[in-house]
Design brief:
Length: 623
């Protein structure tokens, strides 16, 4: 049997390694910025063109490299930060594996200009696809400048999987923000296609957060601070009233390194217990400092996941610190036990006459002669209408004695007859969705519509049915380029973080097709002038936030993205369970539901209706 196992060529091995480290342009920027931070730079410039696909430039004023180090930095597993295995458990730097530059050079054209602090002449290294094309002395400023061009030029399949420029730029901004927030003592600049996106001076932590996310964040932040022998915690959380319907700005940093942790997130959310509205999420910027040997940051290629030596202790300290901060700044509800909880009545002034309370009696008033209650029963169209206070008081009159001690049963009898007559009226039609009498539909628990059939009854989920109706309407508008907008009397101004603003700008034509009228007022500010007719004005911000959150992973206007947009709008604009409907509204939903292409399932895949035949009913009563 011939041998079948062979060693991969270095070029192929480097491309495979690059796939683990470099997933998109944002990955390149993350690695280069972290290297600049490790080089002790206090000024870092990031310049991108075409979302990093054409050019990525990262320049710093750090220590720089010698000619030999400049060449060695592109070799795999070449690093200045690890010399023995034990060093993996005492890491204070960011990049340490020695894979980043080798991986970048394997899939792009890379040019490096660098000069060490003690050298008068710098070095230029040009590499294409892991092959060194040229290395020569050059005149340059202290520090390092990396130029990464034509990313994935030799891996076209990977390049084809990149998203739109807006989506890739949004990912770049995410990575830039994470490093900038971790190091407020460093000056950062980000330029995209010759437009300055960020220019962040050296600042305090609070100033850096406000500079990155906007001036309105200043009033939202509550400081958090805790110091123990095991861990030090500092940072900020948002006030409960500023919680968002989607996961907003949530950042954890361990020893100035951004991480993701559902476990620590749960600790923060638990600290907000009973302070948040349902389905809302707080923003937070939490910075943790721990001894390096108590954490393991080498469990994931992107180093965003960390294993803790004692995560339960961290959980308890973090939750306690956040909860105490919310209490100290009077966010949590408190009871003032120093104030006597009694009715405070001022004593009369000396000589002031005492007013005796009087009782007024309306002569000739008859509680059983109530035309409003009579009309309430007469116009009852649902079970909930019959439970109204007016109707209930009228029906229960047999339990109330008249002035001469007798019982007025006549009014009760008339009311009961009207209710029975209203409930017994039914249709002789055979199909749901046809013209039914006005009393043929009934609402159950403000959530379901009960309608009569000749062969039984049908029960419709009002929310799921309306979602299906709106979903198909929005899908037609997106494909037929035809929509209607409801203009607002007073435009609504919304401000979003820069990464979300970038995606929203890219999505404006799609939203216009759905009935939105949105104008751009500034870099991060938008005016909502009109909305789809079915949407409520109070739902605008929540709906747009959900659209930005759900479509973050989609590229151009593909079918998948159209469906996501239509589903989100349908879910937010549909009538909800608990909403009372008139007979006309119930009939309108029935008519529209059965004119849909798919009537039986909501956009989320749940049933919109069930039918119960007379045979099924008879079986239930015979059993």
């Amino acid at each position: 049997m011939p041998d079948i196992i062979n060693l991969l060529p270095d070029s192929v091995a480097n491309q495979i390694a690059a796939g683990e480290v470099i997933q998109r342009p944002a990955s390149v920027i993350k690695e280069l910025i972290e290297n600049a931070v490790d080089a002790e730079a206090d000024e870092i410039l990031v310049w991108i063109k075409d979302a990093g696909k054409t050019l990525i430039q990262v320049t710093d004023n750090g220590k720089g490299m010698s000619p030999t180090d400049a060449r060695m930095s592109f070799e795999r597993h070449a690093t200045s930060k690890i010399k023995k295995a034990d060093d993996l458990f005492s890491i204070h730097t960011k990049g340490f594996r020695g894979e980043a530059l080798a991986s970048i050079a394997a899939i792009a054209h890379v040019e490096l200009k660098t000069r060490a602090r003690d050298n008068e002449i710098g070095t230029t290294v040009i590499i294409e696809g892991s092959e060194v094309k040229r290395q020569e002395p050059t005149a340059c400023s202290q520090g390092s400048s990396f130029f990464v061009k034509n990313l994935f030029y030799n891996v076209p399949a990977r390049r084809n999987f990149l998203k739109s420029d807006a989506v890739e730029t949004s990912h770049i901004i995410d990575e830039f923000q994470r490093v900038a927030l971790a190091h407020p003592d460093i000056k950062f600049t980000l330029i995209n296609n010759n437009n300055e996106v960020y220019k962040l001076e050296k600042q305090t932590l609070r100033q850096r957060i406000v500079s990155v996310f906007g001036k309105n964040y200043n009033e939202k932040l509550v400081p958090v601070e805790e110091s123990t022998d095991y861990i030090k915690i500092k940072g900020f959380v948002s006030k409960p009233e500023y919680a968002r319907k989607t996961r907003g700005e949530q950042f954890f940093f361990i020893n100035h390194r951004f991480i993701k942790s559902t476990y620590l997130n749960h600790a923060v959310v638990k600290a907000f217990e009973q302070l948040l509205q349902p389905d809302t999420f707080p923003s937070y910027f939490i910075y943790l400092e721990m001894l390096p040997h108590t954490i393991d940051i080498n469990i994931h290629p992107t180093k965003t996941e960390i294993k803790f030596e004692d995560e339960k202790t961290i959980y308890a300290i973090l939750r306690s610190a956040v909860k105490r901060s919310l209490g100290v700044y009077n966010i949590t509800p408190t009871i003032d036990f120093d104030v006597e909880q009694t009715v405070n009545i001022s004593p009369p002034k000396p000589g002031e006459p005492i007013k005796v309370p009087t009782i007024r009696i309306k002569e000739g008033y008859n509680p059983f002669n109530n035309p409003e209650a009579h009309n309430a029963i007469k116009n009852a169209r649902s079970y909930d209408d019959w439970q109204s206070p007016l109707a209930a008081s009228f029906i229960e009159t047999e339990k109330i004695s008249t002035g001469d001690g007798s019982v007025n049963t006549q009014a009760n009898t008339e009311a009961e007859q009207e209710v029975v007559q209203a409930s017994m009226m039914s249709s002789d039609t055979d199909e749901v969705g046809s013209e039914l009498p006005i009393t043929s539909n009934f609402q159950i628990h403000k959530s379901y519509i009960l309608s009569h059939l000749k062969t039984g009854v049908v029960i419709i989920d009002q929310q799921g049915a309306h979602e299906r109706i709106l979903f198909e309407k929005y899908m037609k508008e997106l494909t037929q380029q035809k929509s209607y907008s409801q203009q607002l009397l007073f435009p609504v101004m919304l401000e979003f973080p820069l990464n979300e603003s970038t995606r929203l700008n890219d999505m404006l034509p799609d939203l216009h097709q759905l009935g939105f009228d949105i104008s751009v007022m500034g870099k991060n500010t938008f005016n909502i002038n009109g909305i789809p007719p079915e949407m409520k004005e109070t739902e605008i911000k929540e709906t747009i936030e959900k659209i930005l959150e759900e479509t973050k992973q989609y590229s151009n206007l593909s079918t998948g993205k159209k469906e996501i947009l239509a589903k989100i709008l349908a879910k937010n604009s549909a009538i909800k369970r608990g909403q009372v409907l008139s007979n006309e509204e119930m009939q309108h939903i029935i008519d529209q539901l059965f004119s849909c292409e798919q009537s039986y399932y909501s956009p989320g895949g749940k049933l919109t209706l069930i039918t119960i035949t007379l045979e099924e009913l008879e079986k239930r009563f015979k059993s």
